[in-house]
């Protein structure tokens, strides 16, 4: 059977999707996907040019003053019935920094840097910015793009990995923005695929690890007792198990853990190879993937080990120095400033460990250029086998597969740029 999609194709006409296996029916599917029938020709990839006329940068959002903190946290936890007294337990992280999260300014800077690179390449795309949890909100950005005459939009989320909160929730955010603006059927929104192994994302971390280890070497630190900890946000184990397509056995931690492990291995290998040009006798350096920022009840399993527990364990086994790599983050927002720069570094100090935290990509020119490369891939319909990625897991899916990254607590909601559910 054939269903007319509720999005618009590059020619301005409704997209028709051939549902050859008959699994998806009616409006539920139409509201869940805005990409073309190419998802069946090349599963999950769109390998034809699409005439996008704007980009929307989608962020998490953050408070920008003390009065914003509790309203912001209410937005983050909407629908969970968490009282303000409980929210205040988290609020002190923000209040420590004057109630201001750096994430909004990071995204202003990234928006400007992306626009400059897009303009330099002559792509002719305006870059808008909207958030999930704080102003400017995504519906506002979408409405502005529509008012400016744009109808075929490419979404770029500030998150590199697959899980509910880092991928599918952004797809739901775009769908909700279409609902709130009443623009279903008038605007097409697709989404840049998860970019955890894109060269522009990987390279700044390689540089950071090289710089940290070189500094240790120059200061006489023994690298055989140095540990590199790749840190990312912990998520509930049940959510992790549902991350990524369901027809693949990703192992413990689902696609979320598999992606982090794969890219961490690449970063470590590249960093050591670069250093061995200067230090041919450089020993191997032990590394580990660790987690941070868990917030669920003690009874709910989350991905482990926690970074602070890992630091203590390494100290007990003879480590003398720690390199912390915030591989799960694209910029220095609160989980980096508090959980790593405050708590984790304090734990290192308590155990007498020398420690350094390497930078996030932020607005590194290599990272910004790499993001625009991803935009160009979709503009040109670059074939999958011509898309450069650093792990064997990529290139990731332009169109998310059925059942990808389910929200265990709330189930599936309408989401763009993917197949239902």
TrEMBL record:
| Residues reported in the UniProt entry to bind Fe-coproporphyrin III | 101, 170
InterPro entries the record matches: Ferrochelatase, Ferrochelatase_C, Ferrochelatase_N
**Would the keyword Lyase be found if you checked this record's keyword annotation?**
yes
**Catalytic activity as recorded in UniProt:** Fe-coproporphyrin III + 2 H(+) = coproporphyrin III + Fe(2+)
Q: Name one GO molecular function term.
A: ferrochelatase activity
Question: Pfam families of this UniProt entry?
Answer: Ferrochelatase
Q: Which Gene3D superfamilies match?
A: 3.40.50.1400
Q: What class of enzyme is it?
A: lyase
Key words, A-Z: Cytoplasm, Heme biosynthesis, Iron, Lyase, Metal-binding, Porphyrin biosynthesis
- Location(s), subcellular: Cytoplasm
Where on this chain does Fe(2+) bind? 233, 335
Q: What does this protein do?
A: Involved in coproporphyrin-dependent heme b biosynthesis. Catalyzes the insertion of ferrous iron into coproporphyrin III to form Fe-coproporphyrin III.
This chain's protein is named Coproporphyrin III ferrochelatase
Q: Species name for this entry?
A: Microcella frigidaquae
Q: Top-down, what is the taxonomic lineage of the species of origin?
A: Bacteria, Bacillati, Actinomycetota, Actinomycetes, Micrococcales
Q: Which gene encodes it?
A: cpfC
């Amino acid at each position: 059977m054939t269903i007319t999609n509720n999005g618009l194709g590059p020619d301005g006409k409704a997209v028709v999707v051939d549902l050859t296996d008959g699994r998806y029916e009616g409006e539920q599917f139409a509201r869940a996907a805005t990409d073309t029938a190419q998802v069946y020709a090349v599963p999950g990839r769109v390998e034809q040019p699409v005439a996008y006329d704007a980009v929307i940068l989608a962020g998490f959002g953050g408070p920008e003053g003390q009065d914003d903190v509790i309203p912001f946290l209410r937005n983050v936890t909407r629908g969970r019935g968490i009282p303000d007294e409980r929210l205040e337990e988290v609020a002190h992280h923000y209040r420590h920094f004057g109630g201001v999260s750096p994430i909004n300014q990071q995204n202003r800077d990234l928006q400007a840097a992306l626009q400059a690179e897009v303009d330099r390449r002559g792509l002719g795309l305006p870059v808008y910015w909207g958030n999930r949890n704080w102003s400017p909100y995504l519906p506002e950005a979408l409405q502005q793009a529509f008012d400016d005459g744009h109808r075929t939009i490419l979404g770029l989320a500030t998150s590199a990995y697959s899980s509910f909160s880092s991928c599918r929730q952004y797809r739901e955010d775009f769908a909700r923005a279409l609902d709130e603006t009443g623009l279903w059927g008038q605007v097409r929104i697709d989404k840049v695929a998860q970019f955890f192994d894109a060269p522009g994302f990987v390279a700044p971390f390689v540089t950071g690890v090289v710089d940290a280890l070189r500094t240790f070497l120059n200061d006489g630190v023994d690298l055989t007792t140095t540990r590199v900890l790749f840190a990312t946000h912990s998520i509930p184990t049940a959510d992790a198990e549902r991350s990524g397509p369901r027809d693949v056995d990703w192992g413990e931690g689902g696609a979320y853990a598999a992606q982090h492990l794969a890219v961490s291995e690449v970063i470590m290998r590249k960093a050591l190879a670069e250093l061995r040009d200067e230090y041919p006798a450089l020993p191997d350096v032990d590394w580990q993937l660790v987690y941070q920022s868990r917030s669920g009840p003690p009874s709910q399993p989350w991905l482990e080990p926690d970074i602070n527990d890992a630091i203590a364990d390494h100290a007990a086994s003879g480590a003398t120095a720690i390199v912390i790599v915030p591989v799960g983050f694209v910029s220095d927002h609160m989980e980096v400033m508090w959980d790593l720069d405050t708590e984790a570094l304090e734990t290192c100090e308590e155990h007498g460990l020398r420690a350094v935290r390497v930078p996030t990509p932020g607005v590194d020119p290599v990272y910004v250029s790499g993001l625009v490369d991803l935009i160009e891939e979709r503009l040109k319909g670059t074939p999958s086998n011509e898309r450069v990625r650093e792990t064997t897991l990529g290139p990731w899916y332009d169109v998310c597969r059925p059942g990808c990254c389910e929200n265990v607590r709330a189930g599936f909601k309408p989401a763009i740029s993917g197949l239902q559910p």
